[in-house]
Design goal:
The chain starts with 20 loop residues before the first strand and ends with a strand. The longest helix is centred in the first third of the chain and has 13 residues. The protein folds into two domains: 278 residues, Thrombin, subunit H; 85 residues, PDZ domain (Pdz3 Domain). It is mainly β. α1 runs antiparallel to α2. The chain is built from five helices and 23 strands.
């Protein structure tokens, strides 16, 4: 067994205002498992018992050119042309908001912290109740696919500045609500939101949910340029193209592309979409989209041995992100779907999730699941292992009714279960 590598902090040489200071973070224990409290899935080895913590900050803005302090909305067509060009030219960056050392054996975590005050704008306190619903332009047929996807989602992508750093976000609701990562707005109640045309407006942090790293920011709905279209996470396919748009190190509207490497990675009980699209500091909170420009995830973290991007990035599943965001907007305590079992892999190497224990009074217990049942499908979808089952559960809303197929005493049995809630 090789000794785990000690990760190096990111120190981008081209932006002297950005500094990186590594810090050791203890593994988190506050995140409930969607299948059972405290349960771990031994067969899931990537990442193996890896703990994740966001950095204290995301990125710091580069020095702005002195010749132009503000930009007008009238320049928006030129901005779209720039997005198209940025997508055609291979864009690159320098790191991610949450950067985690890939030390599978040690379970150590290194977080990158940056600091540099950003300009504070007093947030808007009045939200117009009846703003017209903005629309996103249709994908232009004569553009290259990645360029078309970027041009479609770009008007809804924003940069979020706090007093000590910046990140990205995406407008997902016409009422002025922006999805982002919780670590982007950590410790902030008000932020500055830079829209796609360069206009800056005040924003208010509606709420954050640290276990899933999801946050919602609100702005005056009359200010938004467009609302992103959200994909159905269940339709994702490994190998399909993925496009990331955001503000790595303050380079707003940066476009990178790759593929969906996996659709059901579980990272600290969070369902993630894995991608090799370059995700860097400042991309955190921004959208990962498909070729139709629909949001499939919220960019969040990467694995790295070197401290730089190595093509293993993770975005929070859009299904999970919206479940959390809707509860934050409603002012509710966030509850995630809960089944109530602990699992392991079958000893004979078969696919499926073998139930080791059932939580008394849980959805699993009420639905008739038993110790020794081998879960092989949910709503007819085959279950590869415990990780896949957990991914399926976390992207469903509490109260959802599912059909769970198990092998019991050599025969297949279908149990109808109404999912509980962690809230």
């Amino acid at each position: 067994m090789n000794e785990p590598l000690e990760p190096e902090p990111i120190t981008p040489p081209e932006f002297p205002r950005v500094t990186a200071a590594p810090q050791r973070v203890e593994p988190r224990t506050d995140i409930p498992s969607p299948v059972g409290a405290g349960s771990r899935v031994p067969e899931f080895e990537y990442p193996r018992r890896q703990a994740f913590e966001p950095p204290r900050r995301v990125s710091s803005p580069p020095v702005e050119p002195p010749a132009e302090e503000t930009r007008s909305r009238r320049r928006f067509p030129g901005f779209l042309a720039g997005i198209v060009a940025a997508a055609v030219i291979a864009a690159s960056g320098f790191g991610l908001g949450r950067i985690t050392a890939d030390t599978a054996e040690s379970g150590q975590v290194t977080a990158v912290a940056t600091s540099a005050p950003a300009t504070t704008v007093v947030p808007s306190t009045t939200i117009a109740p009846a703003a017209p619903t903005p629309t996103i332009p249709a994908v232009v047929g004569d553009l290259e696919p990645v360029a078309a996807a970027a041009a479609t989602v770009a008007p809804a992508v924003v940069q979020i500045d706090t007093n000590s750093g910046l990140g990205s976000g995406v407008v997902y609701d016409a009422r002025g609500y922006i999805l982002t990562a919780a670590h982007v707005v950590e410790g902030s109640q008000s932020v500055t939101v830079r829209l796609a045309d360069g206009t800056s407006v005040g924003g208010t942090v509606v709420g954050t949910h640290d276990p899933t790293d999801v946050a919602v920011v609100s702005i005056d709905p009359s200010a938004i340029l467009a609302v992103a279209t959200l994909a159905d996470g269940s339709e994702l396919t490994v190998g399909q193209t993925a496009v990331a748009v955001g503000s790595p190190f303050g380079l707003d509207q940066t476009v990178t592309s790759g593929i969906v490497s996996a659709t059901d990675r579980i990272v600290s009980n969070i369902t993630m979409v894995q991608t090799d699209a370059a995700i860097n500091p400042g991309n955190s909170g921004g959208p990962l989209v498909d070729l139709a420009g629909r949001v499939i995830g919220i960019n969040d973290q990467i694995f790295t041995n070197s401290g730089g991007n190595e093509g293993v990035g993770f975005a929070i599943s859009i299904d999970l992100a919206v479940i959390v965001a809707d509860q934050l907007v409603a002012g509710e305590d966030v509850g995630l779907a809960f089944l109530g079992v602990s699992m392991t892999s079958p000893a004979n190497g078969d696919s499926g999730a073998l139930i080791q224990s059932v939580v008394a009074g849980s959805a699993a217990a009420d639905g008739g699941l038993r110790v020794g049942d081998l879960v092989i499908a949910v709503d007819g979808k085959p279950i590869r292992d415990g990780s896949a089952l957990r991914a399926d559960i976390t992207t469903l809303r509490p109260g959802t009714t599912i059909d769970v197929t198990v092998v019991r005493d050599g025969s297949e049995v279908v149990r109808t279960i109404t999912l509980g809630s962690t809230g």
